[in-house]
Amino acid sequence: MSTRRKHVLKEVVETPAKQDDTVLSKVDGIWLRTFLLVTCVKMLLIPTYHSTDFEVHRNWLAITHSLPVKEWYVNTHSPWTLDYPPLFAWFEYCLSQIAVFLDPEMVKVENLNYASPNTVYFQRGTVILADMIFAYGVREAGRTFCQSVNSSVVFVLLSLCNIGLLIVDHIHFQYNGFLLGILLISMSNVSMVGEQTSVLQGAAWFAVLLNLKHLYVYVAPAYIVWLLKSYCLNGGKFFKRIFTLGLIVLAVLVVSFGPFRTQLPQVLSRLFPFKRGLVHSYWAANGWALYIGVEKVLSVIWKRLGWLGDAKTAVMTGGLVQEQAFLILPTPTPIVTFLLTFLATLPALWYLFHKKHYMNWKYFVRCIVLCALGSFMFGWHVHEKAILTAIVPLCVLAATDEEDARTFIILSSTGHTALFPLLYPDNLSPLKIILSLTYALMSIVTLTSHHGKSLLRLHEWLYVIPLPLVTIYETMLHKLLFGDRLPFLPLAFTSIYCAIGVTYCWILYYCIYLRNNVRTDDKTAAGKSRRQRLKDK
Length: 537
Hints:
The protein is mainly alpha-helical. It has a domain of 365 residues. It is built from 21 helices and 2 strands. Strands 1-2 form a two-stranded antiparallel sheet.
């Protein structure tokens, strides 16, 4: 792709400084060495623990290889049914065509919980190879958004060395890296609003992403508003441009869902399973974790006061919440979570669309982060891994702006700590603590040096510094203090403590976003006023 990046808006044209070939070569060298080093670490993790998600994806290989297309979203032989969009199913189908040569038993539907050595090496290897797309996305985003060698290097380190992806993809087992790579590629392209081909390519990439993992629909409003504001309404070709964008999205949808056109209700029921309950057995560190925490405290108080029967109390104190009704507070429903998510993202979208004068790519990326955080905070049945959708785009901004870097340090430290309970075997406890400290220290030292100042306030340090202790309590201290009693407490404590940090970051980042909008509008208006006075003279 072209290294020349233009950001053209209706009233202001911003052209980033063009990096010469020597600078690009230096950054590419660091990018490649970092990627290869991290890949070596990933290869060392191949024999480690993997979660039930490993069997989920093995079963999807079997479904797409052994069954006709019409049965992919109908088959229930395994509890791990196919619940990703059709493009991801086709991705699994392509992988299965290779898997059958390495171990034919791997792609048999009846072989539940099958994990031969060849199966492990193959599935781990596909995640590592798919991360090449993530690496390419990092390279493109760095060339687009970072205008100096230092900021490019910082972004490369923060993104490629992200321990959240290392935990979720290469130990726990998922394919988040290449999906986030596509997101970065898409962000890079649609930000070049002066180059029509790049914008259309970015829209196509995002349409593909939605058809690989539908949960990225939560950041789609940021794309819609950005493309409408900076592309469709800019240049006097509104109907032609919006028709072209619509045609691209429609084409991707037809390719993806076309083979399942007679099964759309069944496919959609798999993609949006509202019967799963508000939260997982391990609560994501979001607003609902705090809500459930309040419910737990109130239930204890109500019990002490004799306002609850023993049977009802047992429902809420016997473990972690899954599908149970709340006893004290109102029970949230899917429509309530949808409305709260909409309201949580609406101000960011409103300000992005109504930006009057100066606007560049930072407002777009910040809006993506806020949409991701809003959906994470209030969405239905949110996965703890979804925090990565906010952390990875924020890497871009952390490398270019000190206020974003401040938020990144808190959010990444908190979000990654909240992921550690996914690695529950005791022998992984030292690894969790080492990873936590290494990435947190690298981020703090790198960003502090890059921006030339301490980034966190005192109260923020007081929150971030104890985060490793949260992991130590969850993995070791609780057993020493309580034995087998209160088995839900370590996970509940981790969720609630981390939820406080995520909530703080969401509020803080909204303040940064809205404050910067007001500042730039005031500066631009003042500049216009000065220029007008000079003309009058």
